[in-house]
Amino acid sequence: MLIHRQKELDSLRQAYQSLMETNRMQVRFITGEAGSGKSVLANQFIDETARQAEQTLFVSTYCNIRSEYSIPYQPFKELLKQLLQDVGERDKCQRTRAEQVKDSFAFCGRMLLEHAPDLLGNFIPGAQVLSAIGQSLFKEQSTAPASTFVEESKILEQYLDTLRAIAARYRLVLFIDDLQWIDPASVNLLYHLVMGLQNAPVMFLGCYRSTDIDITVQGERHPLTKFITQTKILRGNVFTNLDALSTDERKLLMNAMLDAEPNQYDALFREKLFERTGGNPLFVNELMELLKEEGMVVHNYEGVQMNNASLQWRSYPARIEGIIQERIGRLEDSLVEILSHASVQGYNFIAQVLSRTMGEPERDLLMKLSKTLQKQHHLVTEGSCIRSEGGMVSQFNFSNYIFQQYLYQELSMTQRMMLHSDIAGILEELFHNEPEEVSGDIARHFEMSGEYEKALRYILITVDSMMRISRYTEANTLINKGLSLLDGIRDPLERKRTQLSLLLKQCICYRSLKGWGSAEVEELYLRTRDLCEELGQREDTEVTSFGIWGIYLSKLNLRKCIEVARENKIVGQQLCHRSMILTATISIGNTLFWMGRLGEAQAEFDEYMREAEKDKQAGAARTENDEMNDLFARMFTLLIAQRTGDRLRAQEMQQVIRQTIETGRNHFFNVIAYQALSWFYYFEGNQELLNSYSRKLLRESTEYGFAFYEGIGKMFRGSCLQQEEGSRPAIDLIEEGYAILKSQSGTDPTGMHSIYATLISRCLLKAGEDERFLTLIEQVIRTSEAHEECCYLDELYLTKADFFLRKGDTTNRKLCLQKALEAARANQAAGSEKHILSLIQ
User: Fold this and answer.
1) Strand, coil or helix: what is 60?
2) Which residues, including other chains, have CB under 8 Å from residue 528's CB and lie 6 or more apart?
3) SS3 (DSSP) at 5
4) Which helix (H) or strand (E) covers residue 17, if one does?
5) Residue 134: pLDDT band by 50, 70, 90 thresholds?
6) Res. 2: pLDDT tops 60
7) Burial of 490 by CB count in 10 Å (0-12 exposed, 13-18 middle, 19+ buried)?
8) Is residue 376 helix, strand or coil?
9) This prediction's pTM
């Protein structure tokens, strides 16, 4: 039954008219209690407008009830899929319109491929795009492999760019229902889109239950609350509140519903109906359906509806739950069985899955769903219908989640568990080529069926999906859920292996959420390494051992770093684990470099390069990690050559590193190479090349979401700003960059402490901030000596000597130059030693 809300409908029409006239974003929200008619109003507007609009794409989806298994960004993933598959489905019977539809989703697919390459396979299955634009174009433009992890900034940027590109050809109307269940990641994306598409012809329409938004759970506000407040400030009154009706308005609304069909309801009937329902549209609708089924509302000889004079209101429930119970109880048993089976899937369900749990032919079931349960009883609504590799997937929703909850609760525990198991198995088969699409649902169903071992298999897949889009908080929550289910695995060995898989993923989550320097991260890595060694998991032992070394490096605990790296090398030799040996060799060289033991460090890097070359000549398989180790070995060799004055080797390494950039196959490798060259040219004093490479470093690290290297890029770029923009912008950018490094590592000082100190102290010296310079340089020297981080200690003393030179204090200058010379000689930094001697003389 359509709810006639002319005033509210006109408001939405006016928003769409403004969209057409101004080509600027429009935002509207419909709020109200459960059953107030939010979704009906929104869909009525969309159906009406879509019949008349041209060059406008209408896409709709909804948020699911949140749980540990909920995939972040789910509503926005569905919107993209709708743009690729279901645009204009209502008009597919018209040939002309069908051609337009085909063109529109092919265009959307091309825009997604062009503007959001990192979302393919991580955010949306590549097959969805392939089906929209054709296999040849997909292969032509998707030669680069998808990133393993996509930073949130990249998701926001690429999603925005895609919609902006689509909106350059088509107006967009995006509708998301049930926003009360939206996840925090989706709220952030929604805000980003509303802010970034203000000058684009896009209309966003959302519905939510205001009572749910106002609830605080465990001291935390609803994730939508802040966004709603910001929207009110920025856009004013774009909210249609269906609860904000006076008693008279509610009565008018109820009477409008009743009068949608010819009737002769008397005044007493209308009064009692209002007393019972309060004018709530869902309650009115369901109670009227019940009265009709019981013969309390009948047709007279003219076909006009009228109330039965014998109607006794006290015999009817006074709450919506009671009405639903009565309504469901009067359905045929076969229809109740269909709804009961569907309720186990959830608020939304797949007809093909339901067909198999029911053992009923798909065509017969679809007829009962669409004709009987939707059109006659208004208990379900049909959603999208897509074709997957497993066949057709027809989605339906319960018309209100209250129906689903009631039916589910009516089933016995045994019935639920059996159906959950069946549903999980069917979903496995139906989505066997794209398990990530429904892995959370499969995991939930297996958990509810008590099949924890199977649930854990899909929990791991779901965690991977979350981590690929950098949602580490949600992934960590699900990992903890998985850890709580481990006792459900009977085989002790398999239980430990699954535990290890979960803990390895949790290491990454903890590292990302808490920083390398967190005590919890260190404890988790040590625990995971012990489990690796117990199980003899060679590859995982390498990962955890390297992680532990990284933890100590981030804390500048170089003595512990060298100890761990050497232990790792011994373990690798005992296991005959070639990759672990080489990675440990790189780690040892890296640590020795920071300790200022340059000769020893270069010996390690030379050993690495000899052994790596042997592997290449033997035709051994090379991994991306091997290539990254190659690049690090060359980077540190370049930096050591600069310190020791080996100009020939420095020239050789520059050429090799530039070749890495020229191949351009891997953005992460490019960023490391830009860092190496920026670092080298800074200490060479080559301002022109430093300026060039630091710009590239900052641009590419920012564009591709490599936050750590973005911090380094800002520091080196800041050192260039002194000549271009002055001291203050230079100092600010260097500090901003170092703040990123501290946030990434969770500790201060970080592994790049001496580089930051050299950069910032020289800027402070040029800026004439003497007091701050002296305080910082003395603190930094103490820190470097305390942590045995002596690689650039001579540079720090040289900078301090420059300060005393400017002050005319020759005594303190000589002392600083002597300290610098001692540090350079201890480091075997012949290039620096030569320069210092020239200053002393």
Assistant:
1) strand
2) 500, 503, 504, 506, 507, 540, 544
3) coil
4) helix 6-22
5) low
6) no
7) exposed
8) helix
9) 0.80
